[in-house]
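#struct-pred
JK: can someone run the complex with pyridoxal-5'-phosphate? inputs below
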Amino acid sequence: MLYFDHSASTPIHPAVLNLMQELELNHFGNPSSVHRFGQKSRLDIEIARKQMADAIGCLPYEIIFTGGGTEANNLVLWNLIHQQKRHVITSAIEHPSVLSVLKRLKEFGVTSTIIPVDRTCRVNPEDIQNAITENTGLISIMFANNEVGTVQPVKHIGEIAEKNGIPFHSDAVQILGKFPINILDQNINMMSFSAHKFYGPKGTGVLYLKKGTELKSLVIGGGQERNLRAGTENPSCIAGLGFASELANKNIEKRKTHLEKLAEQFKQEMADVYPEIIYNGHPEYSLPGVICATFPAVTSNILVIKLDLHGIAVSSGSACSSGTVNPSHVLRAMNISNDNNIRTLRISFGRDNTEEDVHLLTEKISEILKQNRNKR
Ligand SMILES: Cc1ncc(COP(=O)(O)O)c(C=O)c1O
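RT: done, structure tokens with the ligand placed:
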């Protein structure tokens, strides 16, 4: 099996899995218990908090563990109902855990301005500046897009937010291990992360909450996570997240080079076999190893299924449900025609992929395209 869908999820790092197994077996106490069983679990969580804080350059106090990226985004957005200023500025290419929440929040009097993107999937910070009203209580713009890989001008947006005294949240779920972050360089108040995107466990995430930024808990119960996320913590998963965040930043430049090389190899090989291919995204501001490519000759669901039959995993830019292909809202926002939208694949390389794997991938794609041509 060849796996090229690391933007959807990454396989767990073996060292992270070892640690989690060890803790699951031996550190099973409730982290809120006073006895030493509880203390061991508490310590695991606090070590992870420090590791995650170091990975992004913030204080451990500013790390709130959540049940994933979706929950971290929800935690930020649902707070709008407690605010007087209930207007949000966001972009057309956000993950559904932002856009769908904003749709629901309309029922609670929350309004939003959805900023468009250009053909490369980038927002223009000037549009954000122009959308600010007296009632704007939040700016939420993702750091890098999950379907296309384009990285947003987050620093510039943060400056606008700060100048106007508006809290700035960024969904940074796709970036750890691919893009070095130092929170101190950015004017960001809140940032969402998800462990399964950086070789950690699923169902575990983080909200970075800048000291001084106030939030109310979405999940109410015990006082865990400074009263911001009630419920008994999952120490082994949190420890796995912490360790994975440490590993993600180790050799980051080497990993970036590796991913970029694989993407370049893919493009070179495809140029020979299928010059009609169209690459989407930004040529410079992009995550390493993420390819969003349109194959005008074939719909992406056919390619995904046929590659799967050869044991190769990639994903289509568009969600496929009940036999129909729905065009992706991200590609649509980039002004890509519906026809090309449903002919677009996302290939996202990971740390274990090799040049040989990429060669097999291009070979199989070429074979499928040839069969498809012969049929027509
Ligand atoms: C950009 C982005 N935000 C949020 C999420 C949701 O994260 P999780 O799967 O941890 O809920 C994802 C996952 O695909 C994502 O890519």
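RT: quick notes.
The chain has 13 helices and 15 strands.
The longest strand covers residues 87-91.
JK: thanks, will look after standup
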